[in-house]
UniProtKB/TrEMBL annotation:
<feature type="domain" description="Periplasmic binding protein">
    <location>
        <begin position="30"/>
        <end position="284"/>
    </location>
</feature>
<dbReference type="InterPro" id="IPR025997">
    <property type="entry name" value="SBP_2_dom"/>
</dbReference>
<protein>
    <submittedName>
        <fullName>D-ribose ABC transporter substrate-binding protein</fullName>
    </submittedName>
</protein>
<keyword id="KW-0732">Signal</keyword>
<comment type="similarity">
    <text>Belongs to the bacterial solute-binding protein 2 family.</text>
</comment>
<dbReference type="InterPro" id="IPR028082">
    <property type="entry name" value="Peripla_BP_I"/>
</dbReference>
<dbReference type="GO" id="GO:0030246">
    <property type="term" value="F:carbohydrate binding"/>
</dbReference>
<dbReference type="Pfam" id="PF13407">
    <property type="entry name" value="Peripla_BP_4"/>
</dbReference>
<dbReference type="GO" id="GO:0030313">
    <property type="term" value="C:cell envelope"/>
</dbReference>
Length: 312
């Protein structure tokens, strides 16, 4: 099977932004605000963004919002009063984070979103986003093929306030729902959290012990679901599908435990956001509002095309 790539046109909704607010010779400061650092994938996103901004010559600080919009608001207040010149943001909530981004904008601080978006085209200076929908269309096709178009399955959703949750679910269902032999017996949120996914699936298995597969909205939940299946003695009978391309899931696909995932590019999005901040500081004022980044389908056949992840 060949590696597959999925692209959508960049939405060229251009947004003007304020010019740099700091004209002194002091190094400019870049805040990196991440939804949670309790997930290795977001650790890579945040640390890469901070490292790239530092490499470009800027002071950086990494903030953890712990999936809490109120804590994210505190980080924005801190960044504003502390004189940060740009914010690289992985939003906590697609709607709830808008007010925080607008406060930064009103203070003359550009915000560049990474991976997750806010539901406004007038808040962030630019949003660099994975093509979640198309990536999960590919997973849906793989899912249908692996299950031979029939069987009961479970879907474990991410954060209900995150657009990525629904874009992934919609992409998956745009394929799977065309096959009446495939029946979703349960759909429940686990907030993109590994331990919550374990608990959710353990509970679901009590009511639906004969499922054939589990589609999870991210890889952390896929690993939690796999743990639940191991505990129930069903790991060899139930296929697990994730999304992110996290190291532990890539290794689990290599070991024949997880069926497939959608490989995102956190380093690419993080470096692009830092570069956009650098471009802004150098005088650029117009940025594409949404910049989509391709997602690659990785399964047990194509995993050989990927190097073994390095231990961090």
């Amino acid at each position: 099977m060949k590696r597959r790539y999925f692209w959508v046109p960049v939405l060229m909704l251009l947004v003007g932004s304020c010019g740099p607010k700091n004209t002194t010779n002091q190094p400019k400061k870049v805040a990196v605000i991440i939804s949670t650092l309790n997930n290795p994938w977001f650790v890579v996103l945040g640390e890469t963004a901070a490292a790239q901004a530092k490499a470009l010559g800027y002071e950086t600080k990494l903030f953890d919002s712990q999936n809490n919009t109120a804590l994210e608001a505190d980080h924005f207040e801190n960044a504003i009063v502390s004189g940060f010149d740009a914010i690289l943001l992985n939003p906590t909530d697609s709607d709830g984070s808008i007010v925080n981004v607008m406060k930064a904008k009103e203070a003359g601080i550009p915000v560049f979103c990474m991976d997750r978006e806010v539901n406004s085209t007038k808040a962030a200076t630019s949003q660099i986003l994975s093509d979640n929908y198309s990536g999960c269309v590919a997973i849906g096709k793989e899912f249908v093929q692996d299950l031979n178009k029939k069987g009961d399955y479970v879907e474990i959703l991410g954060l209900v306030g995150d657009n990525n949750t629904w874009n992934r679910s919609k992409g998956f269902h745009s394929v799977v729902d065309h096959y009446p032999g495939l029946k979703m017996v349960a759909q429940q949120s686990a907030d993109f959290d590994r331990n919550k996914a374990l608990d959710v699936l353990e509970s679901i298995l009590q009511a639906h012990p004969n499922i054939s597969a589990v589609f999870c909205g991210n890889d952390a939940m896929a690993m939690g679901a796999y743990q639940a299946l191991v505990a129930a003695g069903k790991a060899k009978d139930v296929g697990v599908y994730g999304f992110d391309g996290a190291d532990d899931v890539m290794n689990s696909i290599r070991d024949g435990k997880i069926k497939a995932t959608g490989l995102q590019a956190p380093q690419m999005m993080a470096k692009a956001a830092a570069q956009f901040a650098d471009d802004y500081f150098k005088g650029k004022s117009d940025f594409a509002q949404k910049v989509p980044v391709a997602v690659e389908l990785v399964d047990q056949e194509t995993i050989k095309d990927y190097a073994t992840p390095k231990k961090r």
